[in-house]
Amino acid sequence: MSLFGEYLRALISTNKINIYALSKSAGIERTVIHKIMTGDRLPTDEYLHKLTEALPLSPEEHQRLMETYNIS
After folding, report:
1. Closest Cα partner for 28 from 61, 1, 71, 37?
2. CA angle 41, 64, 7 (to 5 degrees)
3. For the domain that residue 46 is a member of, what is the CATH number?
4. H-helix or E-strand containing 13?
5. CA 66 distance to own-chain centroid
6. What distance in Å separates the CA atoms of residue 29 and residue 36, rounded to the nearest whole number?
7. What total of structural domains would you count in the chain?
8. Do residues 43 and 72 make contact, with C-beta atoms less than 8 angstroms apart?
9. What is the full DSSP assignment across 23-61?
10. CA neighbor of 35 nearest in space, from 66, 17, 56, 44
């Protein structure tokens, strides 16, 4: 699992959102989100933007998510 995927999984859990709901609100297929969370795939810039828009992130969470993306 990638650092980005681990942090995304934690954010989803913390915000009590399931993958299906995130998929619908972000406009990304559920299987793609699952692959991102397991580290099988990194999100494109477009998917990264959609995920950050769909999740209710604090400025600190947003910054850390972007940092983990850049590391991955």
Report:
1. 37
2. 45
3. 1.10.260.40
4. helix 3-14
5. 10
6. 11
7. 1
8. no
9. HHHHT--HHHHHHHHHTS-PPPHHHHHHHHHHS---HHH
10. 44
Q: Give the count of beta carbons closer than 10 Å to the beta carbon of residue 27.
A: 11
- Structural domain boundaries, residue 19: 3-71
pLDDT, tens only, 4-56: 999 999 999 999 999 999 999 999 999 999 999 999 999 999 999 999 999 99
- Residue owning tokens 């989803």: 12
Cα of 7 vs its chain's centroid, Å: 8
pTM: 0.89
- The token duo for 23 is 């998929």
